[in-house]
Automatic annotation (TrEMBL):
Protein name: Alkanesulfonate monooxygenase SsuD/methylene tetrahydromethanopterin reductase-like flavin-dependent oxidoreductase (Luciferase family)
UniProt-listed InterPro entries: Bact_Lucif_Oxidored, Luciferase-like_dom, Luciferase-like_sf
Chain ranges of the Luciferase-like domain: 4-323
Gene Ontology CC annotation, any one: cytosol
Keywords recorded for this protein, A-Z: Monooxygenase, Oxidoreductase
GO MF annotation terms: monooxygenase activity; oxidoreductase activity, acting on paired donors, with incorporation or reduction of molecular oxygen
Length: 384
């Protein structure tokens, strides 16, 4: 089975640069990703974020991308499910309309929210984000699957109603979650959902444990679109002509991102039992932000190097049982991102998905030809 490649962006904007210009650059990056063979573009949803991360309305971007792309799939990564941020029926409506306008190219991955900045801005109780996500996803799926539906839950009570319009993809587009806890991995598997799995810098062994928990719990939802597990991992990413060039261009940005992206996790761990597991990752997070060797070679989160090095690193994740990689090409300039997209399309994607069309050294081909020739003493050789 071929490996799927996604371009994952949080629309991060460099200091001194324009948020408005960055948004147009993101569109150019998505269009180039389609040209270079990426399978999907995934956009984060972040609200009132400090610094450069500015992907506050990915649903609007997807509506635009639906008109300026033809093939590449469009994925929310993630739609935030606390009720005060996104009512589940509004999320279902946006997904359905975007699916229609993109001719059936939408996918939705959901999440519970992982920043106190956004939670407090929307008056979200951290103790309620997990049950609201799980209940909201049940309502979302039911509203798309059934003609006339009703729902009676703790957070949502809906009398008989009809979702108008419904999505093109039947029964509904692929739906999944972003998960970092073993509990959420197992829940996703038991629900028959797709999965974006992340280890919070805790290493390959922990990442494998999480994937195994999902696959062990997997049970097909007969009313859903998936007939087998689907696992993707987000990878913080850099690529250059050589390992040193990639390190020079990306190392500082990748370590900085490791520091800021998980800054809220220790606070969240103290606010609600559902987030308490995050405290276990604090030593790994702190180390990832200061130790390049740990971040690159041991954290299970980061890929950076020449095309050959990147291929070897991604093969390690593929061996863990994943079907997708989401390459987080962000935290650097637009020019570097465009260069990275092109290099991935030219050298990395073909290695995994079109190997017979990848140029190999002449000596390697000759060695294989000679190995396949009949031996002098074989019946085929004697009759030749």
């Amino acid at each position: 089975m071929s490996l799927k490649f996604g371009l994952w962006s949080e629309q991060e904007t460099q200091v001194g640069h324009s948020y408005a210009r960055r948004l147009h650059e993101l569109v150019d990056e998505a269009r180039l990703a389609e040209k270079m063979g990426f399978d999907f573009v995934a956009l984060s949803e972040q609200h009132v974020a400090l610094g450069g991360i500015s992907s506050s309305a990915p649903e609007v971007v997807f509506g635009y991308l639906a008109a300026v792309t033809q093939r590449i799939r469009l994925r929310t990564a993630v739609t935030l499910m606390p009720q005060r941020i996104n009512h589940a029926l509004r999320s279902a409506e946006r997904l359905a309309v975007s699916d229609i306008l993109s001719h059936g190219r939408m996918e939705m991955y959901c999440g519970r929210a992982n920043t106190t900045i956004a939670m407090r801005a929307f008056n979200v109780d951290p103790k309620e984000t997990l049950p609201q996500m799980e209940e909201g996803m049940a309502l979302l799926r039911k509203s798309m699957r059934e003609d006339i539906f009703t729902f009676d839950g703790q957070y949502y009570q809906v009398p008989p109603r009809m979702l108008v319009p419904k999505p093109v993809q039947k029964p509904y587009p692929v739906i999944g979650i972003a998960a970092t806890s073993e509990r959420s991995h197992a829940w996703a598997g038991a629900e028959g959902l797709a999965l974006m799995s992340a280890t919070i810098y805790q290493g390959f062994e922990n990442q494998q444990k999480l994937i195994d928990a999902y696959q062990k719990a997997w049970k097909r939802d007969e009313t859903g679109p998936l007939d087998r597990p689907r696992v993707g991992v987000p990878l913080f990413f850099g690529i250059g002509k050589t390992d040193q060039a990639a390190k020079d261009d990306y190392a500082e940005a990748l370590m900085h991102y490791a520091r800021i992206s998980t800054d809220a996790y220790p606070r969240l761990a103290k606010l609600a039992d559902d987030y308490s597991y995050m405290s276990e990752s604090v030593p790994a997070m702190e180390r990832a932000g200061r130790d390049w060797d740990y971040l690159l070679n041991h954290s299970g989160t980061t890929v950076c190097g020449s095309p050959d090095t990147v291929i070897r690193q991604i093969e390690k994740f593929q061996a863990m049982g994943i079907q997708e990689v989401l390459l987080h090409l962000d935290s650097v300039t637009h020019e570097k991102i465009m260069e990275g997209i092109e290099m991935v399309g030219r050298y990395v994607i073909p290695h995994f998905n079109d190997r017979n069309n990848v140029v190999r050294p002449t000596d390697e081909i000759l060695d294989r030809i000679r190995a396949m020739r009949p031996r002098n003493d074989s019946p085929a050789a004697k009759s030749a």
